[in-house]
Design brief:
single chain, 94 residues, globular
């Protein structure tokens, strides 16, 4: 069973082109070519870690497999590779 620290998720997503918007939760929106896209995920304000099921949901929201999401957060999947995944899946237009 996997867990991730929300602080690590925050730092990794910001490095990959996401910007944080604090509302009832911490929302992360992906920006492409300086514009906000529809690709987003969120974490709870009160949680220090997220568990396996939430990792799976966040991966799906970001159009990744769970393993790819873990790589994105661990920084073994870089911003350019993530962008190419989104282009290949038709989520953003090159």
């Amino acid at each position: 069973m996997s867990t991730l620290k929300t602080e690590k998720i925050d730092k990794a997503l910001r490095k990959k082109g996401f910007k944080n918007e604090q509302r009832d939760h911490n929302y992360y929106f992906y920006y492409y070519n300086g514009k906000k896209s529809a690709i987003n995920t969120k974490t709870s304000h009160g949680k220090d870690e997220i568990g396996d099921s939430l990792i799976g949901m966040m991966a799906k929201q970001l159009h990744l497999k769970k393993e790819q999401f873990m790589q994105l957060i661990q920084c073994t999947l870089d911003a350019d590779t993530y962008k190419q995944i989104l282009i290949d899946k038709g989520q953003i237009i090159k």
